[in-house]
Amino acid sequence: xxxxxxxxxxxxxxxxxxxxxxxxxxxxxxxxxxxxxxxxxxxxxxxxxxxxxxxxxxxxxxxxxxxxxxxxxxxxxxxxxxxxxxxxxxxxxxxxxxxxxxxxxxxxxxxxxxxxxxxxxxxxxxxxxxxxxxxxxxxxxxxxxxxxxxxxxxxxxxxxxxxxxxxxxxxxxxxxxxxxxxxxxxxxxxxxxxxxxxxxxxxxxxxxxxxxxxxxxxxxxxxxxxxxxxxxxxxxxxxxxxxxxxxxxxxxxxxxxxxxxxxxxxxxxxxxxxxxxxxxxxxxxxxxxxxxxxxxxxxxxxxxxxxxxxxxxxxxxxxxxxxxxxxxxxxxxxxxxxxxxxxxxxxxxxxxxxxxxxxxxxxxxxxxxxxxxxxxxxxxxxxxxxxxxxxxxxxxxxxxxxxxxxxxxxxxxxxxxxxxxxxxxxxxxxxxxxxxxxxxxxxxxxxxxxxxxxxxxxxxxxxxxxxxxxxxxxxxxxxxxxxxxxxxxxxxxxxxxxxxxxxxxxxxxxxxxxxxxxxxxxxxxxxxxxxxxxxxxxxxxxxxxxxxxxxxxxxxxxxxxxxxxxxxxxxxxxxxxxxxxxxxxxxxxxxxxxxxxxxxxxxxxxxxxxxxxxxxxxxxxxxxxxxxxxxxxxxxxxxxxxxxxxxxxxxxxx
Length: 654
Hints:
This protein has 654 residues and is of the alpha/beta class.
């Protein structure tokens, strides 16, 4: 006998009423009765036997469907047995490597087939799970060694879409648009400039942040049509624990995408680069067809009181991270990427839709493995969500999220102007009134003073950036907001914008191509624009070697001077002093060997004025130029005359 109830339009079968007592998946009691604590959900393969465990407490029956041939529609059905914590199990004796599988559950009078949410391998387009010997997917060289990282503020993150890097016809990369394309060395582009991995290494960045590389929806990119140009950023999750197949040389073989991503990670590690993965646990692609909904209807998503889906993501749904098994899935998924692929960090899309307890549990579990694994996210205040405000992992609750960085949109908009009002200027483009917001960013977003504070308790909680994959690139924003001026002036503005990011306290992030003034030809949201809009234009890179070298120098400056990488809020308040400067300028000193800096004092000036400016210098010793000599008109012990838009850095050596 089974009990059927309708909740928010979803008919749910509660199997054995003597056990479940008809408790709804939306009731708090449901988790206490049916949450499963084990670490063996999904498939466990050995040559001797394969074990399956599925969490589906509302099903009255469950089966494993075996597909010996990928294209076949016929499957052998194997009955599962109800077990503890709402799970179903099956053990198959013998070697089942290479076999496809799905789960089939009976919900009320309806049978639903779905891919295992815990699947670690899938076939073409992720429509079926695959039984794979994961150990056999390890590359010949596969170590657990990670490039050293003493603190997240030592990172310089380079955000990259995998296809963008290599798809340009003059990238010089053989495996264009593929995982192993990023792993190629010695590639050359126009004028014999280094491209791909060699280019990234030459910049001096420490982390490559890969935009979504989990398996995303077929409607975004069809893996079966690799010969047809297709593009998407990939914020459409389908199978969370499996690499995307369109980036593999053979999406039909479930093992290939796994092997090639591991090969890429190992190569980046060998070259001194850590890897951050962009993850999207806040929503699913299609709520009705997603495997979570097919297997446990109603449980994994948030609903409003009127039965409609909560939609703070503006993607049609939200993942209910606060529910125990939803939280467990997210934590298990993150740990899977760390343990199986040696991923070094995570960027959480729309983190403000996730609950604080989940984020802190992830941080706790990652600290047990390597405290240097970075956690950063979009801590926006997503108001249209049913998650209570006090539980949201956003900027307003940063004090409850130690060790987790949040993107500093305040500094972003102060640097270049509002991303929503395209014609609005920012500090670098001559607008006044942004100086105080720039100072807040320089101080790492901490409570520096009553007037200078943002959301951060410590500098590791702030990610500074001037552009990313979202919205216009900084160059395109400058074109829109500064009509009538020449490109040479815009180059100076662009340089200053990048300089502010790399000389502020906190964690700096660069968007791939920012080093050569990347343009998307004015396209603001290029998530599904063609390659010609999104690719890294290696001809543009070759045409602007001085811009690329300038970014190299900025990164080297940050690495050579720990004063720009202070570890704590207390150090910042002790060593950072804002100096007198007129409108259009921000000046500060980092004093007394801040952070163990080799220089006794550093003086930093952001000069956003085309005309000359005379600024007083603190009488701390003999000042000499470290960077920005081209903007120094005269330098005296107590006075600096600066000219042109740009960065000036001075030092007192001893």
